[in-house]
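> forwarded from #structure-qc
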């Protein structure tokens, strides 16, 4: 399957799944996922599957990236925090849809690779840091949107505390092999609303900053 055919197939699948926001579909179409693949996997970039990257992590399947991005309901004005830069692919998608993206990664190797890919694509509204994602980025908060690309074992209260009123947090939550993708909304009166979206499989959120190698 060619890259163009694979991209078109994923966009069609997203439309059938109810993702109709043209800005999300356009971002999926325009960001070249093959740029974010590990060596030897470029030809599989548009398979609808999670694939391995460095440091024992994975790049999420395009379908899940599309669903999670759409769940954030971005308008282009938001300040977004991403927990888990990984390959940098989800970050790149967000950069096309938000005012500014702050992203945290515990693996320096992954962060350096993602930064280089973002530079190649001339994505200039991304701020990245090697840090413990479970702590968030309180110095830069509050955030209009927060997204996890790894599974929080329990409700991520430390990150919910960094959400602005009216904000949305999307995260896989659960300690097992299969987690529940949840969307939290912070109402203006300070109450959180929780909505289950689908079952997903993500690598777990790990504490601390990893040593290189």
């Amino acid at each position: 399957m060619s890259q163009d055919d694979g991209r078109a197939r994923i966009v069609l699948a997203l439309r059938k799944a109810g993702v109709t926001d043209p800005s999300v579909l356009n971002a999926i179409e325009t960001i070249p996922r093959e740029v974010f693949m590990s060596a030897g996997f470029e030809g599989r970039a548009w398979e609808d599957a999670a694939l391995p990257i460095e440091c024992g992590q994975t790049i999420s399947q395009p379908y899940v990236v599309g669903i999670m991005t759409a769940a954030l309901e971005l308008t282009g004005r938001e300040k977004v925090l991403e927990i888990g830069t990984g390959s940098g692919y989800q970050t790149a998608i967000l950069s096309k849809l938000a005012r500014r993206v702050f992203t945290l990664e515990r693996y320096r190797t992954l962060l350096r690779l993602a930064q280089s890919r973002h530079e190649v694509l001339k994505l200039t509204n991304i701020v990245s840091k090697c840090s413990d994602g479970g702590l968030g980025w309180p110095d830069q908060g509050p955030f209009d949107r927060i997204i996890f690309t790894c599974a929080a074992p329990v409700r991520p209260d430390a990150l919910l505390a960094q959400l602005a009123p009216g904000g949305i947090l999307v995260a896989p939550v659960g300690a097992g092999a299969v987690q529940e993708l949840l969307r939290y909304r912070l109402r203006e009166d300070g109450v959180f609303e929780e909505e289950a979206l689908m079952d997903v499989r993500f690598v777990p959120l790990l504490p601390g900053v990893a040593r290189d190698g």
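QC bot note: The beta strands are 51-52, 58-59, 79-83, 100-105, 126-130, 143-148, 163-173, 179-186, 192-200. Residues 64-200 form a domain with the Rossmann fold fold (CATH 3.40.50.150).
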